[in-house]
From TrEMBL, chain A:
ECSIT C-terminal domain mapped to chain residues: 254-375
Positions in coiled-coil regions: none
Subcellular localization: Cytoplasm; Mitochondrion; Nucleus
Family per record: Belongs to the ECSIT family.
The protein, known as: Evolutionarily conserved signaling intermediate in Toll pathway, mitochondrial
Chain positions covered by the region annotation Disordered: 382-409
UniProtKB/TrEMBL annotation, chain B:
NADH:ubiquinone oxidoreductase intermediate-associated protein domain span: 105-278
Organism per entry: Pyxicephalus adspersus
Presence of keyword Signal: no
Protein name: Complex I intermediate-associated protein 30, mitochondrial
GO BP, one annotated term: mitochondrial respiratory chain complex I assembly
Lineage: Eukaryota, Metazoa, Chordata, Craniata, Vertebrata
Length: 409, 303
């Protein structure tokens, strides 16, 4: 209502001014202004006095360019703004600037801070008071701004809580766009909360050994697989005063893999390949595998049918199977060599130590040659960049290095 | 509700048609056969309309090309007639009624790669790169590249960083639109090998109204990573509808009888290399799965 009143008064003012200009068209610009001034009931504002309270409009970006960038200073800026003015003048610009600066302050996933931002809106001003107001877009700029805050929460995966709901209701009322957005988030977020079967424990990136254990268990996908920690990360003081750092070396191997390696043809080498990437949310870790090339002739395992007369090892029953009971896919198997073991190491030089450690459980490794086929960087990418060198896209991400082949023994 | 603008795929039919290159097989050189890469679609400024070239501008009318195309299409006509005589969907009726599994896409030859398009945020000015090629022993498809979520500096785009692999819509003889009928099956079966990143599976179905052209059905695909293959079954009832990257309030179940394309999108904001190896994409009929749609079908949306 207040805005409407202002609008009407402004229109009256303009109309009177135009009438004046019509009446005296040949007058210069200045008296017109003075006449318009006279139409004002209030006196002309005096020039701003030099006082301690800053009255000039300062861009809100300046508030955030503090040296210390953490949650406390971010909240402090918001508090400063809220305490400055009861009317919270310029809060939309302030909130938009705050949203932009959030990742830099490291608070983009903090629900408390988002609630604090929504708290900047003046309360109960934007709540529609009659059906016409709620029918039309009441205070659209402010509603859009609040939706923007919720949108950013959503894109960073922050689920709002009861406080958010309370703040939105207090600011915009129940029939508003921010409330709609809030309800949409609260419908879809819990629905997909547990869809990811590979949940990553929080804070696991800090310890390399527990991180390696988690990753190896995840990629091995075998409960019987046994993890061996060959080397713990440590620092060593040498005689000449230099400090030598030892990185971690964690391996995994299951009983099935030991049996497979035992059957490996001794004329062919086994390969250590890597590093391959594994992504845990936004961190990328590397792992190495011990495998063999796919052999041309597959050994048919001959089971002795007379090992037990009462319980035959295999049954060759010719069951008449209908097409409707066939649940297998008609595809060729991909020819790939068997994987014998996997490991994660902080340094490539430790891989020889890994093979040594594996020899304790797999004596065959002492008899077959071990070929190290290590690449720096993703293997496929280096090939592709060579092909597209002629294209104008700059491909400075990867530097390619040739395959390093090294024979052991 | 939004995931991000990245997953918004622009389905523009004139452009898709251009991609298919039904009338210009000569444009596909041997290099395209070895690896498909994401620069095939040009940069388009946000808000600008797609260039609508008349077909004679991008068609090769040389005698050799014309005869080849004609020959191909006439062959297709004969094949279609034969398929029609054999039974629905080119299979004998008994097989069509009884089959529990089918393999929709597999990757055993360079021709199989031609059924797919690769796109990345390069077309909105981003810096991601994506490539598709045959993987181990030429028996799998390897979709790989580098994700870069740096937003293009055009003053409008606020976020970036996506790469998409999408199958081309099936075409009959002389460029007729066709679609797949998946109504015998209720579950999507994928054999893949990823690097631990989450992906999104997008299914597009044939629609009638202009309003529905941007409708897509999504579900998530979580990869384990590591050297082993992973079999993933996603029931078709789990797919939720979105339009232009926004999940819709009014949800409708995916109608499996008119499917045009399937796609895989990565947009997880983790900058760096990614890769997804696909052995095959199939469908199966999971008798234990009786759910029709996983989300509420409100008559009046309580929002």
């Amino acid at each position: 209502m207040r805005t409407l009143r202002w609008l009407v008064s402004a229109q009256n003012l303009c109309a009177s001014a135009r009438w004046l200009s019509w009446a005296e068209p040949c007058k210069s610009h200045k008296p017109l202004v003075s006449l318009a001034r006279m139409a004002h009931t209030s006196s002309t504002p005096a020039p701003p006095k030099d006082s301690n309270t800053p009255k000039a409009v300062t861009p809100f970006e300046e508030h955030f360019s503090t040296q210390q960038k953490d949650k406390a200073s971010f909240v402090q800026v918001l508090d400063l703004f809220c305490g400055r003015d009861v009317r919270r003048r310029g809060h939309v610009e302030m909130i938009e600037a705050a949203l932009k600066w959030m990742p830099e302050f490291g608070v983009e996933k903090d629900l408390e801070v988002y609630n604090k931002i929504l708290d900047v809106f003046p309360k109960e001003v934007f709540v529609p008071k009659n059906f016409i107001q709620s029918m039309f877009n009441h205070y659209p700029r402010q509603q859009e701004c609040a939706v923007k805050v919720l949108d950013q929460m959503e894109s960073y995966g922050v689920c709002p809580d009861v406080n958010t709901c309370f703040l939105i209701t207090q600011t915009f009322g129940k029939l508003s766009h921010p409330m709609k957005k809030y309800r949409r988030i609260m419908y879809w977020f819990p629905r997909f909360k547990y869809t990811n079967p590979y949940l990553i424990p929080a804070g696991i990136e800090a310890d390399p050994v527990s991180l390696s254990k988690y990753c190896l268990e995840r990629i091995a996908d075998d409960r019987d697989a046994r993890i061996t920690v060959y080397q713990l990360p440590s620092t060593e003081q040498c005689d000449d005063g230099t400090i030598k750092e030892h990185t971690h070396l964690v391996g995994i191997q299951s009983q099935d893999q030991i049996a497979l390696l035992e059957e490996h043809d001794r004329n062919y080498p086994v390969l250590v390949e890597g590093p391959f990437n594994l992504w845990l949310k936004k961190t990328c870790v590397n792992y190495y595998i011990l495998r063999a090339e796919p052999s041309a002739k597959k050994k048919e395992k001959i089971l002795d049918p007379e090992r037990s007369l009462y319980y035959p090892i295999y049954l060759d029953l010719d069951l008449e199977r209908d097409l409707g009971e066939d649940h297998t896919f008609d595809v060729d198997e991909v020819d790939e060599g068997p994987v014998y073991a996997m490991c994660m190491a902080g340094d490539e030089k430790l891989l020889a130590k890994w093979i040594q450690g594996l020899q304790e459980t797999n004596p065959i490794l002492g008899e077959v040659p071990v070929l190290f086929r290590l690449t720096s960087g993703p293997q496929e990418l280096s090939l592709s960049v060579k092909q597209t060198d002629s294209s104008p896209q700059d491909s400075d991400e990867e530097t390619t290095q040739g395959e390093r082949l090294r024979m052991e023994r | 509700m939004m995931f991000s603008h990245e997953i918004m795929q622009r389905f523009n039919f004139s452009l898709t048609y251009k991609q298919v290159k039904a009338f210009s097989p000569l444009l596909c050189s041997s290099f395209h056969l070895s690896a498909i890469y994401s620069q095939s679609r040009n940069y388009r400024r946000p808000g600008s309309s797609p260039e609508r070239l008349p077909f004679w501008k991008y068609t090769n009318f040389s005698l050799k090309n014309t005869t080849e195309t004609l020959k191909k299409n006439v062959n297709l006509v004969f094949k279609e007639i034969q398929d029609h005589l054999r039974g629905p969907g080119g299979k004998p009726l008994l097989e069509n009624l009884l089959e529990q599994t089918t393999v929709m896409w597999e990757f055993r030859s360079p021709e199989d790669l031609q059924k797919w398009t690769v796109s990345s945020d390069m077309e909105i000015g981003g810096k991601s790169q994506a490539f598709l090629k045959l993987g181990t022993n030429n028996q799998t498809a390897l979709f790989y590249g580098v994700l870069n979520s740096e937003a293009p500096r055009d003053g409008e785009t606020t976020s970036s960083g996506y790469c998409t692999l999408r199958s081309k819509p099936p075409k009959g003889a002389f460029g007729r639109k066709l679609n797949y009928d998946w109504s015998n099956f209720n579950t999507l079966h994928l054999r893949i090998r990823g690097d631990g990143r989450p992906w999104m599976v997008n299914i597009q179905s044939e629609t009638y109204f202009t309003l529905q052209w941007d409708d897509l059905y999504h579900y998530f695909l979580y990869t384990r990573g590591g050297p082993y293959w992973q079999d993933i079954k996603i029931p078709l009832s789990k797919f939720f509808m979105s339009s232009r990257g926004r999940v819709q309030d009014g949800q409708y179940a995916l109608w499996p009888d008119k499917i045009t394309t399937i796609g895989f999108t990565i947009a997880d904001r983790a900058d760096g290399p990614f890769q997804l190896e696909i052995d095959f994409i199939g469908l199966c009929n999971d008798k234990a799965h009786t759910e029709e749609f996983a989300y509420e079908l409100y008559k009046n949306i309580p929002l």
